[in-house]
C-alpha cells in the first residue's frame, strides 16, 4: 500500500467523508451544519492519520510485536473511511431526489396533508438510514473480509489425464499481500487450509508480500511448512513483487524450498509417476508446471502480444503431449492457456472484485475472467478470489484457498 496510491486513497476518502456530511445535512436539515462538518472532518483526519501512522510505524511494530494492537486501531479508521465511500453515492441519489421534489411542494401540499407522510419526510428517513447501513456494511465487510477464508474444492475430469495423475491434488494460494492487514498468522492459516485437503503440491500465483518487514517471518513459515506439500511449492510473479522489491522478495523465496518460475517450466514427472511422491502408472507422458511472468505492456494489442510471447517462452521446452499446469498472475493469460490447449491455467490478480455488487462493472472495464472456473473444450482456467488483500473490505466475495483434484474421465 506504500506510495502515492495510499496517499491518494486517504485524501480522496477524507474529502468524500466531508462531502457526504454536507449531502446528509442537505436532506435531513439538522440545523447543525457546521458542527456536523467539524465532526466529519475530525473523524476523517483521525482515520487517515491513523492509517498513515500505522503504515509508517509498521516495520518497528513488527520487530517489537505490537503490530496486532495497532492493526485494530487502523482497522477502525479504515471502516469509517470506507463507510463514507459507500454512503456517498447513496446520498447523492437521495440529495438529487430531494432537490427535484422541491418545485412540486406547493402543488401537492393538500395531498401531503391528507396522506400524513410527505415526500420530504420519506427522503429524510431514507437519508437517516444511509450512514447506519454504510457503517454496518463497512464494518462487516472489513472484519469478516479479514477473518474469513473459504477453501474451495474442484474435481476436474480429463480424458487425456496420465494415469499416474488420477486423484492428484493441487492447492492454490494467490494475492496474499502480506502486510498491514494480512499477518503471518493468516499465511499459516491459509497453508493449514490447503494442507488439510491432502494436496500433493502447492501453487502460489503472485502478489505474495507487500511489507518487506515481514520477509523474515514469511521465510520462516514457508520453510516450516514446505514438508506438508510432498511434491513442492511453485511460485510465479505478480505485479506487486515488482512494485515492492523484486530482488529482496526473490532472494527470500529462493532461500526456502519454494521453486520460483519466471517464463520457464519444470518437469514434475518425466512419465509413469517418476519424480512424484507415491505416484506410479504406465503412462509415459510427462507432467510439467509452467509459469509466465507478469506483463506490464500498455494497450490491449501490446498486452496480448507480450502475453503470447511469455507463454511461448514458458512452453519452449515442454513436449507437446505433456500434461501442463500453467501459472500466471493476471487472469487474461487464460486466453493463452486455451489457445495453447493447456489443461489447467491458474491465475489471480482480480481479487474477485472483493465487493460483489461491482463485479459486472469490473468485468466491463476489462477483466474478462474475474473469478471462478472457465472452460473451453477440455481446457480449464481458474481465477482465485485472493487469499489475502491490501485492503480487507469484502462483501459476498470471501478470501479463497483453492484445491483441484485431477480425475481421469472414463
In short:
The protein is built from 12 helices and 12 strands. With 410 residues, the protein is α/β, with parallel strands linked by helices.
3D structure, described in words:
- Pfam families: Metallophos.
- This is Tat (Twin-arginine translocation) pathway signal sequence.
- It comes from Megasphaera elsdenii.
- This protein is of the alpha/beta class and 410 residues long.
- It folds into two domains: 4-146, no CATH class; 150-408, Metallo-dependent phosphatases (Purple Acid Phosphatase, chain A, domain 2, 4-Layer Sandwich).
- It has twelve helices and twelve strands.
- It has helices at 4-28, 33-64, 67-101, 109-115, 119-147, 184-195, 215-225, 239-243, 246-254, 300-314, 333-339, 359-364, and strands at residues 149-158, 169-173, 201-205, 233-236, 259-261, 264-269, 287-291, 323-330, 344-348, 372-376, 379-383, 399-408.
- The strands form two sheets. Strands 1-12-2-3-4-5 form a six-stranded mixed β-sheet. Strands 6-7-8-9-11-10 form a six-stranded mixed β-sheet.
- Helix 11 (333-339) links the parallel strand 8 and strand 9.
- Helix 1 runs antiparallel to helix 2 (33-64), helix 2 runs antiparallel to helix 3 (67-101) and helix 3 runs antiparallel to helix 5 (119-147).
- The radius of gyration is 25 Å and the shape is elongated.
- It starts with a helix and ends with a strand.
- 44% of the residues are buried.
- The model has no long low-confidence stretch (mean pLDDT 92).
Amino acid at each position: 500500500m506504500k506510495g502515492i496510491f495510499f496517499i491518494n486513497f486517504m485524501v480522496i476518502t477524507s474529502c468524500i467523508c466531508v462531502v457526504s456530511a454536507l449531502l446528509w445535512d442537505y436532506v435531513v436539515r439538522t440545523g447543525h451544519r457546521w458542527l456536523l462538518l467539524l465532526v466529519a472532518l475530525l473523524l476523517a483526519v483521525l482515520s487517515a492519520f491513523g492509517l498513515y501512522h500505522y503504515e509508517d510505524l509498521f516495520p518497528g511494530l513488527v520487530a517489537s510485536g505490537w503490530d496486532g494492537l495497532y492493526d485494530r486501531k487502523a482497522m477502525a479508521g479504515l471502516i469509517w473511511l470506507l463507510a463514507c465511500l459507500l454512503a456517498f453515492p447513496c446520498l447523492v441519489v437521495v440529495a438529487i431526489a430531494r432537490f427535484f421534489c422541491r418545485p412540486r411542494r406547493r402543488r401537492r401540499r393538500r395531498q401531503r396533508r391528507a396522506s400524513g407522510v410527505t415526500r420530504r419526510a420519506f427522503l429524510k428517513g431514507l437519508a437517516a438510514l444511509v450512514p447506519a447501513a454504510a457503517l454496518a456494511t463497512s464494518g462487516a465487510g472489513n472484519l469478516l473480509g479479514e477473518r474469513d477464508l473459504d477453501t474451495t474444492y474442484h474435481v476436474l475430469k480429463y480424458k487425456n489425464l496420465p494415469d499416474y495423475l488420477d486423484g492428484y491434488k493441487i492447492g492454490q494460494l494467490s494475492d496474499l499481500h502480506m502486510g498491514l492487514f494480512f499477518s503471518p498468522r493468516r499465511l499459516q492459516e491459509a497453508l493449514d487450509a490447503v494442507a488439510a485437503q491432502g494436496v500433493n503440491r502447492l501453487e502460489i500465483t503472485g502478489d505474495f508480500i507487500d511489507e518487506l518487514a515481514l520477509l523474515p517471518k514469511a521465510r520462516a513459515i514457508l520453510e516450516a511448512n514446505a514438508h506438508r506439500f510432498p511434491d513442492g511449492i511453485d511460485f510465479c510473479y505478480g505485479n506487486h513483487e515488482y512494485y515492492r522489491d523484486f530482488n529482496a522478495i526473490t532472494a527470500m523465496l529462493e532461500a526456502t524450498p519454494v521453486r520460483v518460475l519466471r517464463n520457464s517450466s519444470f518437469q514434475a514427472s518425466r512419465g509413469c509417476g517418476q519424480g512424484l511422491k507415491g505416484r506410479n502408472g504406465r503412462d509415459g507422458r510427462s507432467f510439467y508446471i509452467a509459469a509466465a511472468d507478469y506483463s506490464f505492456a500498455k494497450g490491449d494489442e501490446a498486452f496480448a502480444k507480450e502475453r503470447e510471447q511469455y507463454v511461448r517462452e514458458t512452453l519452449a521446452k515442454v513436449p507437446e503431449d505433456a500434461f501442463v499446469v500453467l501459472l500466471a498472475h493476471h487472469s487474461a493469460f487464460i486466453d493463452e492457456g486455451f489457445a495453447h490447449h493447456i489443461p489447467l491455467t491458474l491465475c489471480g490478480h482480480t481479487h474477485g472484485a472483493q465487493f460483489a455488487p461491482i463485479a459486472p462493472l469490473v468485468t466491463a472495464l476489462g477483466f474478462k475472467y474475474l473469478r471462478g472456473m472457465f472452460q473451453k473444450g477440455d481446457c480449464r482456467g481458474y481465477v482465485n478470489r485472493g487469499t489475502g488483500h491490501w485492503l480487507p473490505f469484502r462483501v459476498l466475495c470471501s478470501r479463497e484457498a483453492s484445491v483441484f483434484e485431477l480425475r481421469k474421465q472414463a
